[in-house]
Amino acid sequence: MKINKSKKNLVIKDFPEPTDSTRAAIFPDRCCLCGNTIEHKAIVCNNCKTNAKIIRGARCLSCGRTKKDCECKGRANFYDGVVAPFVYDGVVRQGIANWKFHGAERSVNFFADMMIAAIKEAYSDIKFDVITFIPQTQKETEARSYNQGEQLAMTLGEKLNIPVHSLLVKLYETERQRNLSFISRSGNIFGVFDCCNKAMTEGKNILLIDDVKTSGKSLNECAKMLHIYAAASVYCAVIAVV
Ligand SMILES: [Zn+2]
Ligand SMILES: [Zn+2]
Predict the structure, then answer these.
(1) Tell me, what's the pLDDT at 228?
(2) Residue 222 Cα to ligand 2 middle (Å)
(3) Sequence-distant (≥ 6) Cβ neighbours of residue 123 within 8 angstroms
């Protein structure tokens, strides 16, 4: 049978590349917080822009809230400071849950950009040597499919051009902090972390990343270990504080 050579490559070769508008019609952009469809190339919908509780103005570095909303009264911690762009509430809470469920790259980029703005404002005079994150046990990572704190840390490292290292290990399985009363949380994680990279800890200014700060006990316990291993400073950054 004679093949018509002129028609042979027609099918694939002649398909046009999708334009931005056709791409947007097939995969509409979604708000990085509520997940509703939004205008093409927008990041957050107008409703979320209005309702997200952004932390602005003078901050309390002990709890991460504004000085006006601080209830910790400058409590001493093992970490040298904690900063966040958002209060963990409403659409931000929903956005973090959506990100954890869908793992969308758009969301992690958005959260990282917001964190960078807060980091640059609050820690403007600190030159960080290394970024690290709260570790999980193997079992926890398998159950949640990945470590969100690590994903955030990697994204921040790329954007800030700071190396990311796993400096800590979690030695034991623990009950989820959020399932426990405030009073039980310190005991639940006391002594469960250890430093696994002394060379990248000693004498270093460390940026410690987590997704949400609830009681702050995990950040504090990790900062304690990093200071035991002679870190010069441990400053924390999270997406949101309770
Ligand atoms: Zn929205
Ligand atoms: Zn405070």
Answers:
(1) 95
(2) 19
(3) 81, 83, 207, 235
> Which ligand has its closest atom nearest to the C-alpha of 242?
2
Domain ranges of the chain: 10-49, 52-241
The ranges of the chain with pLDDT < 50 are: 1-3
Structure confidence at residue 40 (pLDDT): 80
Report pLDDT for 23. 61
Q: Given this model, what pLDDT does residue 104 score?
A: 76
Q: How far is CA 148 from the centre of its chain?
A: 7
Q: For residue 216, which ligand has an atom nearest its CA?
A: 2
What pLDDT is stored for residue 52 in this prediction? 93
State the alpha helices, DSSP H only, in the chain: 5-8, 10-13, 20-26, 46-51, 90-102, 105-122, 138-144, 148-160, 182-189, 217-228
Q: Answer yes or no: are the C-beta atoms of 213 and 239 closer than 8 Å.
A: no
Going from the Cα of 98 to the center of ligand 1, the distance in angstroms, rounded, reads: 11
Give the model's pLDDT for residue 1.
47
Say how many C-beta atoms besides its own lie within 10 A of residue 1's C-beta: 3
Fold of 52-241: Rossmann fold (3.40.50)
8 Å CB contact between 127 and 160: no
Read off the amino acid at residue 172. Answer: Y
pTM across the whole model: 0.84
Q: Give 59 Cα–ligand 1 centroid separation in angstroms.
A: 26
